[in-house]
Write a structure and sequence with these properties.
This protein has helices at about 15-20, 35-45, 60-65, 95-115, 140-150, 205, 255-260, 275-280, 295-305, 310-325, 395-405, 415-425, 430-435, and strands at about 5-10, 25-30, 75, 125-130, 165, 170-180, 190-195, 210, 225-230, 230-235, 265, 270, 340-345, 345-350, 355, 365. The protein is α+β, with helices and mostly antiparallel strands. Among the domains are: about 5-215 and about 305-365, Rossmann fold, CATH 3.40.50.150; about 390-435, no CATH class. Helix 8 (about 275-280) packs parallel to helix 9. The radius of gyration is 23 Å and the shape is globular.
Length: about 450
């Protein structure tokens, strides 16, 4: 397998953060698989030469029949809603969670085709929310068991750690939670990343870092008030909360509505992040989702469902670097103290969040923070030319204040002050009259 020319098949492609991240570093995408309407339109416009296979349930058959090429790498971000708090953590009892099992069948089919032609097993790249590690149906254990090549579901006694490694008959698997706010994006976005491969790949060398000492970078405070292109800006924190898919329609009821992290005060007026700013806060090029007839709500959802581009680029670079030096870069030797499961030819190691000692003068970093962090700034995210429709009216501001009082929620004091000042521009009677006729449950003007 040549690290300079890895072919990729993408499952649950979304708007293809991986294609953006891995452009020009040795990856060639053979096909996508996406069924949602708007992301499919983005793919058709941005990558017209790459086929979108649509429904993933047919891909195994297409691989076996030779209808599509068998790639070196299969990457996926199978739906995370069933593993998140918002999705009630229903896991494999949810149809969306079962797509993870369909993903496994595709990998098995791809391996079978590659074996016939004498090629190594598929490299697997998978991203999901942290909640999959706590899923009550043990979806992560099922995925791990399948990748390792064992029949019985693996379920460790004390649950799944946020970083770990497993060796089995068919693959070695490593996983690690990484936070995008240490990769140049001023957004706290912790996601689980998994890399798996056969004997030609040491995924632990890709996901984990040999580290000098035990210290890790701290996230620095940044200026919350600044001027840009003649506009005055105020933000409420040095980085935002995780951008969520429903930001386009549920901007006023989420936790971010009370800590202010997904609001911007521009020229003393409060507004939401625009779709352009959301593209930037995920690492996409400006206007990446701005296709013909694109509605803001569709752009918000597609961006919020995607991956953090710089994190995926960092991992892609480490994959190609590892493949280039496999023969003289021995796999990291994890101390036996960290073994949490052993059964016949399977062993699993649970690794801690902080760097820990592995030999006489080195530590291993498996934490959400990379050893060499890159810090972004919201100053580089904001757009001085934000459209008027993204600004909050006195009705919207009053609604956030009302829900805060009804639910006895904590609120950022600076944000509360801005909400009070804006809502007081209209009388309570006017706000109540408009509120009664305004569409509920979504921001009507953006639909």
């Amino acid at each position: 397998m040549q690290p300079s020319n890895l072919t990729v098949g993408s499952i649950c492609s979304g708007i293809e953060a991986a294609s953006v991240a891995w452009a020009d570093i040795g990856f060639t995408f053979e096909w996508f698989s996406e069924i949602s309407d708007f992301p499919s339109k983005v793919l058709a416009q941005r990558y017209p030469q790459i086929p979108n296979l649509g429904d993933m349930s047919h891909i195994s058959e297409m691989l076996i029949s030779g209808a599509i090429n068998s790639p070196d790498v299969i990457c996926a971000g199978t739906p995370c809603q069933s593993f998140s708090v918002a999705g009630w953590m229903s896991g494999l009892t949810d149809l969306r969670g079962n797509l993870t099992l369909e993903f496994v069948e595709i990998i098995k089919a791809n391996d079978a085709v590659r074996k016939i032609s004498g090629q190594p097993r598929s490299i697997v790249f998978w991203e999901n929310v942290e909640g999959v590690l706590r899923d009550k149906t043990n979806a992560f254990g099922c995925l791990l068991s399948s990748l390792l090549g064992v029949q019985n579901e693996i379920r460790p006694r004390n649950g799944w750690p946020k970083a770990g490694m497993a060796r089995g008959p068919e693959r070695t698997v490593a996983w690690r939670v990484l936070d995008a706010k240490y990769f140049g994006l001023p957004q706290q976005r912790r996601r689980l990343y998994l890399v798996a491969g056969g004997p030609d790949l040491s995924p632990e060398n890709i996901l984990f870092e040999r580290h000098e000492g035990i210290g890790l970078p701290n996230y620095p405070a940044s200026e919350l008030n600044f001027t840009l292109n003649g506009h005055s800006f105020e933000v409420f924190r040095s980085y935002t909360d995780c951008l969520y898919a429903a930001y386009g329609t549920k901007w006023n009821g989420n936790a971010a509505a009370y800590n202010g992290s997904l609001f911007v005060c521009q020229n003393d007026r409060l507004r939401r992040l625009t779709p352009l700013e959301c593209e930037r806060i995920m690492g996409f090029p400006d206007g990446y989702t701005k296709i013909e007839k694109a509605k803001p709500t569709a752009r918000y959802q597609a961006i919020g469902n995607s991956w953090s581009v710089p994190v995926v680029r960092w991992l892609g670079n480490r994959v190609t670097q590892q493949l280039a030096k496999t023969h003289h870069d021995p796999a990291i030797d994890i101390p036996d103290d960290y073994r949490i499961f052993v059964d016949k030819n399977v062993e699993i190691f649970g690794l801690q969040d902080d760097p820990f000692w592995i030999d006489s003068d080195r530590y291993l970093n498996c934490s959400p923070v990379p050893s060499k962090a890159t810090i972004g700034n919201l100053r580089d995210i904001v757009d001085p030319e934000a459209d008027e429709k993204f600004y909050l009216t006195p009705v919207g501001c009053k609604g956030i204040l009302r829900r805060r009082a009804e639910r006895n929620l904590r609120i950022n004091p600076l944000l509360e002050e801005r909400l009070i000042r804006i809502s007081s521009q209209w009388s309570d009677e006017k706000i109540e009259a408009i509120s009664k006729i305004q569409p509920r449950g979504r921001f009507g003007r953006l639909a």
